[in-house]
Amino acid sequence: MKKAKAVPAKSQGVIIIVSAPSGAGKTTLIKRLMQAFPDMRLSVSYTTRPPRVGEVPGKDYHFVDVERFRRMRARGEFAEWAKVHGRFYGTPRRPLERSVRGGCDVLLDIDVQGSRKIKGGYPDAVSVFLLPPSLRELERRLSERKTDGKEVIRQRLDNAKRELGEIARYDYYVLNLKIGDALDALKAIVVAERHRVSRVQRWKPLSP
Amino acid sequence: MKKAKAVPAKSQGVIIIVSAPSGAGKTTLIKRLMQAFPDMRLSVSYTTRPPRVGEVPGKDYHFVDVERFRRMRARGEFAEWAKVHGRFYGTPRRPLERSVRGGCDVLLDIDVQGSRKIKGGYPDAVSVFLLPPSLRELERRLSERKTDGKEVIRQRLDNAKRELGEIARYDYYVLNLKIGDALDALKAIVVAERHRVSRVQRWKPLSP
Questions:
Q1: What mean pLDDT is predicted for residues B150-173?
Q2: In this complex, is the C-beta atom of A180 within 8 Å of any C-beta atom belonging to chain B?
Q3: A42 - beta bridge partners?
Q4: Torsion angle of alpha carbons B138, B144, B150, B151, nearest 10°?
Q5: Cα–Cα distance measured from residue B33 to residue B184, given in angstroms and rounded to the nearest whole number
Q6: Minimal CA–CA distance to A15: which of A121, A89, A150?
Q7: Residue B2 above 60 pLDDT?
Q8: Which of B32, B25, B55 is nearest to B147 (CA)?
Q9: Around Cβ A63, how many Cβ atoms within 10 Å?
């Protein structure tokens, strides 16, 4: 009788994409998720936009100039990149692939077009769309930030509405009515995806 | 601008298949899962085997004679059926489809061949393979039951080893080292699958 190989001995990490219209509560939710799963890595994007007040280089973003971004892009160092509101954003490829191969989950905080590109290059990636409770709440949260002018807020609201139409491209949705419930749903998605048979790279026989 | 349809208004229930070699702890785990999710339905199979001590007709199984089983099968009333250890087993189609359409999750406690047939007919069904902690533990649990003779136990152990080789056909695996951990994993799989975009049949616009 052939040996039953039934215990996962080595598994790939999960790439988890979380997208949301700005103001949906994504930043808080991701922060809470990272606290709940300390072994999960958060991908740090490169961007050509200037740092906002309080942002830490290397933690929130790698801030680079357009020249450097273009050079990295030419060398294929981005798993995905995009130009949003006139600025470049890119997900570095190497830390992403190293983590996944090592069995570490990686969270990507990227937008709809970024998600599409990642899913193209990494079909096992899992995408989650976070839904705001309402448009009014979305507007309120955007206005509260005070970092953006009226015109930027309107632009972001329009973007939000357009992005919501893209939800069919995502694997999962999470409705952010209460942050605790949204967090539980997101955690369940991560835990479930860690139990996917397709991520197991090596099985070992069940011990006698 | 098109109306963003962003709140799930109607979703299909999830069909969850749980398979395991006998002795893996499936019955206990399923019982605990049903307690955790009172709105989930457990599919009750038809069988031609006689009831064991303590089994309740209509709850554990619908016990029928071979004649009746064959008639039901001829009328296409089974979503899947199989002959195992010389007895017929079948999953009734109507309650399954009614629950799923109504947005209710249904759990199917079926074996490897049943799982394959259900996935063929219902591609959105989710299959979970429960792994026993070890072969020795498996044997110990089978022996403890006292309902089965030595020959039956040996046959079930052989079946178990064969079934473990089929795990690649499953979506998820759950290793049953501790019942609490296995339950958490199974619950996460159910919760995650409830958040699948593909199960949403109707979206309504985000309120203003």
A1: 84
A2: no
A3: A107
A4: -50
A5: 9
A6: A121
A7: no
A8: B55
A9: 16
Q: Is A92 helix (H, G, I), strand (E, B) or coil?
A: strand
DSSP A198: G
List chain B domain ranges: 15-194
Out of A134, A189, A206, name the one closest to residue B135 (CB): A206
A78's CB contacts (< 8 A; 6+ apart) are A46, A72, A90, A91, A92, A93
Q: Does domain A9-197 have CATH number 3.40.50.300?
A: yes
Size of interface A-B (CB pairs under 8 A): 125
Residues with Cβ within 8 Å of residue A165, at least 6 apart in sequence: B2, B4, B5
Question: Above 80 in pLDDT, residue A207?
Answer: no
Token couple for A75: 């060398």
Q: Residue B29: its chain A contacts at CB < 8 A?
A: none
Full 3-state SS string of chain B: CCCCEEEEEEECCCEEEEECCCCCCHHHHHHHHHHHCCCCEECCCEECCCCCCCCCECCCEEECCHHHHHHHHHCCCEEEEEEECCEEEEEEHHHHHHHHHCCCCEEEECCHHHHHHHHHHCCCCEEEEEECCCHHHHHHHHHHCCCCCHHHHHHHHHHHHHHHCCHHHCCEEEECCCHHHHHHHHHHHHHHHHCEHHHEEEEEECCC
Range B15-194 has CATH code 3.40.50.300: yes
Q: What is the DSSP string of A40-70?
A: PEEPPPEESSPPPTT--BTTTBEE--HHHHH
CA A203, B123, B164 angle in degrees (round to 5)? 25
Pairing relationship of beta strands A41-42 and A15-19 according to DSSP bridges: unpaired
**Nearest residue in A to B199, CA atom:** A172
- Are A105 and A127 in contact by the 8 Å Cβ rule? The answer is no
Whether residue B129 contacts residue B19, with contact meaning beta carbons closer than 8 Å, is answered with yes
In this complex, the residue of B173, B187, B196 whose CB is nearest that of residue A8 is B173
Predicted pLDDT at B1:
42
pLDDT for A155:
80
Q: Identify the weakest region by mean pLDDT among A1-10, A98-107, B54-63.
A: A1-10
Distance, in Å, from the CA atom of A182 to the CA atom of A175, rounded to the nearest integer, reads 6
pLDDT digits (tens, 9 = 90+) for B55-91: 999 999 999 999 999 999 999 999 999 998 899 999 9
